[in-house]
């Protein structure tokens, strides 16, 4: 089979950079960011956030061939910040959101485990018998 090994889709090779920035000639305040080992999930999240930024005039992404795990994100700003600053700001925001989501998930998981333990030890009624007196 010609398919690459699964790990090749997520792990960077020796000397391989995760992100490469290229300014777009002839278009002011415009850059393309090539992000290796990523797909539509990250491209959509980053560009969705960028489109909400009032300093960003354009944000879009494209993914090439499905067997090539790389996306290209193009950003054009109004000049008050560089495309790189907008990109970094979006990434930091998404990291914050993901961290918050992870912490909330862990809290809910702990509460669910506690509730399950309470139900098992008290037969689901807080240990007060059957309630049929």
TrEMBL record:
Subcellular location per the Swiss-Prot or TrEMBL entry: Nucleus
InterPro entries hit by this protein: RBP11, RBP11-like, RBP11-like_dimer, RNA_pol_Rpb11_13-16kDa_CS, Rpo11-like
Keyword Nucleus tagged: yes
Coiled coil: none
Single Gene Ontology BP annotation: transcription by RNA polymerase II
Alphabetized UniProt keyword annotations: DNA-directed RNA polymerase, Nucleus, Transcription
Major subcellular site: nucleus
Keyword Electron transport assigned: no
GO molecular function: DNA binding; DNA-directed RNA polymerase activity; protein dimerization activity
Domain DNA-directed RNA polymerase RBP11-like dimerisation: 31-101
Domain of life per record: Eukaryota
A Gene Ontology term for the protein's cellular component: RNA polymerase II, core complex
Family indicated by similarity: Belongs to the archaeal Rpo11/eukaryotic RPB11/RPC19 RNA polymerase subunit family.
Protein known as: DNA-directed RNA polymerase
Provenance organism: Echria macrotheca
